[in-house]
Write a structure and sequence with these properties.
Layout: E1 2-9, E2 20-22, E3 27-29, H1 35-48, E4 56-59, H2 63-76, E5 81-82, H3 99-103, H4 107-114, H5 129-147, E6 149-156, H6 158-169, E7 184-190, E8 193-201, H7 203-206
Parallel strand pairs: 1-6, 4-5, 4-6
Antiparallel strand pairs: 1-7, 2-3, 7-8
């Protein structure tokens, strides 16, 4: 078995949104993409179109993830499987609140954030980091096992990406890095081995011309992500 798993964070959201959805974990903030997020989705699509079609596509049920993937699916005529276990971490009473609101008037909480303590476990009534990993890691592994060979695309959230990559890399922190919106982190799965190939790759966002085929040539295929093989972003 050899599978290339592309873990993609959704585009930038509309932070003024007051939309929520009811999930299996509770009532969660569910904003749409901002204009910047829609542009990130377009640039991501241009990159994905240069690849061979993946063996499968998975997406979090949240609107921002579905919108990030929408154009690509339409262009390729592909279906996507909505996977609840790839949904955003539930942060309890903090859902829908800005960071400034959460730490306002609580210097100890602000210090704990600055010191990168167990972030999710601080959320009143929310999921812990352990609970997040307990649903995310099996969900990604199921997707890999079903593919057997080829590539899979997973569009999800920063916390979910941290949960899976933290498991692969043996890192305990809830959030050990902040994936950029629209970024791709790539894991190679061969047998029981899992290794990170790219972390937070944003070349398609910073240098979109690299992923635009010359006029008249059409899209090129390549399971190894085409021009990105030249080096990490």
């Amino acid at each position: 078995m050899s599978v290339l798993a592309l873990l993609i964070r959704h585009g930038t959201v509309d932070f003024e949104s007051h939309d929520f959805r009811v999930t299996s974990r509770g009532r969660q903030w569910d904003p749409q993409l901002s204009e910047d997020g829609l542009e990130q989705a377009r640039r991501l699509t241009a990159r994905l179109l240069l690849m061979e079609p993946p063996a499968a596509v998975y997406v979090s049920p949240f609107r921002r993830c579905r919108q990030t993937l929408e154009l690509y699916l339409r262009e390729k005529g592909l279906p996507a499987q909505v996977e609840d276990d790839l949904g955003e971490v539930f942060i309890g009473r903090w859902e829908g609140m800005r960071f400034e609101e959460i730490v306002s008037g609580d210097e100890e909480l602000a210090r704990r954030f600055r010191d990168q303590e167990a972030m999710f476990s601080m959320a009143p009534g929310g999921e812990t980091g352990e609970q997040l990993r307990a649903r995310v890691v099996p969900a990604v592994e199921r997707a890999i096992d079903r593919a057997r060979d080829g590539a899979i695309v997973i569009v999800t959230h920063g916390g979910v990406i941290n949960a899976y990559l933290g498991h692969v890399m043996g890192i305990d922190q809830d959030m050990f890095f902040l994936p950029d919106n629209g970024s791709i982190s790539t894991v190679i799965a061969e047998g029981t081995e899992r290794r990170v190939k790219f972390l937070n790759d944003v070349r398609h966002l910073t240098d979109p011309a690299v992923f635009t085929p010359p006029a008249g040539t059409g899209a090129r295929g390549g399971m190894e992500e085409g021009p990105a093989k030249a080096g990490p972003s």
